[in-house]
């Protein structure tokens, strides 16, 4: 059975209702809608009147190239899935069934080795690491602890180079990113254990170093000329352009994270004292920063 809803906008609106009825959060639905809008723009610019599988494939090839699925990032794979979900919904009125969620094994740290791991996590927390980062550290340390306990190693002094080598060799070949993170976490933990005199030798030197290379990142800094060019991309003659210009100014002037800028509302601006007050998405801490006059002037023209 094929569902023909006339326009992509109407189709996506019905698809959002479907997601809501399936219990998907508004945040999850917005991710679907974002890629669907990209598809709509692609079809409009090329005057393609029919949104079908071939059109979706052309769009994805234009956006991600001819790379294999296994070479895409997690985000890119999500975009591909969300794009084809729209076609699936158009043709059947439903979307791909997702694999039933299996709750992640709870990372419980118990015993002598685990107590030292908890001390290590407390030390890292004192360095003001985010809860998400600490949670990742805990998970990788739990995996190391689990391996040690399964092999009868329950005391720090009994951790041997052979045990470390054996643990590091048990990662599946397709999980390079996870293996790299686990190796780094355990290496730093073992260095901490040696500094605390809990091991007789610095076992961090035994942890293998892999050849994992992260994907290229956007530059962390821009030159003055590049900043000027970025600001010039906003069309200040339109309401949306003025909004974009104000957002760019806040990033340039205050160095805000993209996640914090995305969550800003007019309620975060205290006009009486010209400050921006918001809760950081990453740390959860409330921050107050001066509102740049140029950004404030643009913002008032909403």
CATH architecture of the largest domain: Orthogonal Bundle
Contiguous helical run count: 12
Strand order of the largest sheet: 1-2-3
The overall number of domains is: 3
Largest sheet: 3 strands, antiparallel
How do the SSEs run, as a string of H and E? HHHHHHHHHHHEEEH
Radius of gyration: 25 Å
Average pLDDT score: 82
CATH topology category name of the largest domain? DNA polymerase, domain 1
Poorly predicted sequence stretches spanning 5 or more consecutive residues: 1-6
Described by the principal axes of the CA atoms, the overall outline is: globular
CATH superfamily of the largest domain: Tyrosine recombinase, N-terminal domain
End-to-end separation = 46 Å
Helix and strand composition category: mainly alpha
Number of strands: 3
Could you estimate the helical fraction of the residues in percent?
Answer: 40-55%
Give the quaternary arrangement of the chains. single chain
The top-level CATH class of the largest domain is: Mainly Alpha
Content of β-strand: under 5%
What does this structure look like?
- This protein is mainly alpha-helical.
- It folds into three domains: 8-92; 112-205, DNA polymerase, domain 1 (Orthogonal Bundle); 224-299, Orthogonal Bundle (hpI Integrase, Chain A).
- The protein is built from twelve helices and three strands; from the N terminus they run αααααααααααβββα.
- The chain has a three-stranded antiparallel β-sheet with strand order 1-2-3, with no helix packed on it.
- A hairpin with a 6-residue loop joins strand 2 (275-279) and strand 3.
- Helix 1 runs antiparallel to helix 2 (26-45) and helix 6 packs across helix 8.
- The radius of gyration is 25 Å and the shape is globular.
- The model is unreliable at 1-6 (pLDDT under 50).
